Amino acid sequence: MALLEVRDLHVGIEGCEILRGLDLAVNAGEVHAIMGPNGSGKSTLSHVISGKPGYQVSAGQILFNGEDLLAMEASERATRGVFLAFQYPVEIPGATTMNFLRAALNAQRKARAQTEFSTPDFIKRVREVANSLNIPQGMLKRGLNVGFSGGEKKRNEILQMALLEPSLCILDEIDSGLDIDALRIVAGGINALRSSERAMIVISHYRRLLDYIVPDVIHVMSKGQIRKSGGKELALELEACGYAQFEDAA
Amino acid sequence: MVAVQETVERVRRIDVDQYRYGFETLIESDKAPKGLSEDTVRFISAKKNEPAWMLEWRLEAYRRWLTMTEPTWARVDYPKIDYQDIYYYAAPKPKKTLSSIDEIDPEILKTYEKLGIPLREVAILEGVEPPPGGEQTPNRKIAVDAVFDSVSVATTFQKELKAAGVIFMPISEAIREHPELVQKYLGTVVPTSDNYFATLNSAVFSDGSFVYVPPGVRCPMELSTYFRINERNTGQFERTLIIADKGSYVSYLEGCTAPQRDENQLHAAVVELVTLDDAEIKYSTVQNWYPGNSEGKGGIYNFVTKRGDCRGRNSKISWTQVETGSAITWKYPSCILRGDNSSGEFYSIAISNGFQQVDSGTKMIHLGKNTSSRIISKGIAAGKSQNTYRGLVSAHRKATGARNYTACDSLLIGDKCGAHTVPYVEAKNSSATFEHEATTSKISEDVLFYCVQRGLSEQQATGLVVNGFAKDVLQKLPMEFAVEAQKLISISLEGSVG
Ligand SMILES: Nc1ncnc2c1ncn2[C@@H]1O[C@H](COP(=O)(O)OP(=O)(O)O)[C@@H](O)[C@H]1O
Ligand SMILES: [Mg+2]
User: Fold this and answer.
1) DSSP per residue over A189-212, as a string?
2) Looking at the partner chain, which of A78, A94, A164 has a beta carbon nearest the beta carbon of B471?
3) Least enclosed by CB within 10 Å: which of A26, A117, A121, A212?
């Protein structure tokens, strides 16, 4: 059984159909890349999987570990292991990154009937991961993402992912706005979290990302559908010809 | 063994204290007849064994009140109050005695639990008393521990305060024991004629706190009504007077973060603060009176007059308030900056949810030279509530070099509530520098979803955002209060989302 299975998914927003019969199956241990031009519905897919309100699902199914994901509240999906690294992470003034992380981690652990982390253990763990991502300690004490550069915000997303240890990681345009050094750090953090129990979906419209995070499967998305799926060789095809050739492939 | 001896003594003293209530209620009836008349005022004064001057003072206020009309300028809306349909005095009856924690209303217990208040404190606050003779039951142990604790706190307080020369007692006692101080200061900050509700309070106040800090003394501890058992039933018309003599300092905490279920609808308190040369008063309030039910029925009308007078040079008064309760709040803790170089501060978090209406703010009246004031107001409106900041900053002709900084931030949760900012500024001299900033923001869907995607409930997410929003003010609260206030903020916003 696939960890995530999306079947014939049709999704609209404000009366406009964005996803038009999308199919996707991702197994634990795999890294899938979804490539597609701006506006093809990649963020929409990530939002619907993670439970953002405002979308109308008119047909189709999303199964997570065989269970109906669409029937669950967004916070329940999170506690069950669905994590979304946002394309545009929000800012929360006054709530320090440290406190936010702690609240999130404890909420998840509580929902899973696990014991909460002790303060020293938690701080130690955060410091370790923060160091590996080149996140200065001072940043953890500032309001969440407030005054962070684009790159810092993205690193902060990976920090959260590492601490929450999700089983499905969806990374929406994690490479956007990053210079090459920042991209290396972020990709390094992501690669370090690859494991046989965990699946990842990396979403991007830049092929460059695939040089740093090498996926097992590449999907090309256009106009709300997966047009083609394949191995690493698809990346080369994209490099050569761009997205245009896939638009009417389905 | 010493400890055991002490315990026994302390428990015995509680009995004595409680018995004393009996002495105070020697007059036949425990309740004044319904309604307000000169007789009501005389009744209250007699109950309190007050000297003649105090009765005169009250009567004068009462006669003045008869000539006044209720103010209507605030942005609050409520049915007309029938002042003849209110009891103005009920003996401070001890709470219904419960014999164990199990008898406390589970709803109330739940709130305590959320606030993280230890059970033994719950026992004190809810008035759990040991059953007579039932020494071996576990419940008795809780109760005795509880009582023991509060008494030990109170007695340690008293000893240390006495050594420092600080007077801290119910105002009714101060009127009898320190008439010269009370007469010198009472009504000098909020005159009996000040406003409708303050005048009413002057006529019928039942009790409150009195603090005097002698010259040069830094009060050795935060003074709080929290552990003042004898102050349980003084809520309705409370009167507080705090005097910090030259070069002294005191921090006073008002209120209690326990759930308050008062059946009195109308609350009209008066608080007067006086600082002499180089003195400082820090006054913190956490107010969480009953806000009414989810349909907007019931709840407290909180019409409060709080004012501080920086009478001396270089003196300072700082108000910090966290207002989460009451159906209607009408409250403007203010500073009269009379002394040269004096300074006033107002830090406020006002939260409204459900059908609550808040009209609150401050007045900074600059009279002396080089006076400064700072206003940080955080208004949070949720549900169908209305939240107004109303503030006045004025500089007298002679108040050269007056400075004020005001920042008013409003946060809206949902789209059925309202936040309003009404600043009044009057500078009568050209050297005054007044700065004003105001922002209004909403908790966006995106922020909520971000938090929820990390596993937080919408409730937790809202609490997190609001606490972050209010952080600058929360940090002004004394430590132990800040933690409880933070939890209180989350609790008071329950049901505001989703
Ligand atoms: N709130 C919205 N209302 C209407 N259309 C929207 C809304 N959000 C996104 N869309 C449209 O949905 C399409 C897909 O958007 P999105 O999923 O963000 O694409 P991608 O992430 O692939 O760039 C776009 O055409 C976009 O304009
Ligand atoms: Mg996108």
Assistant:
1) HHHHT--TT-EEEEEES-GGGGGT
2) A94
3) A121
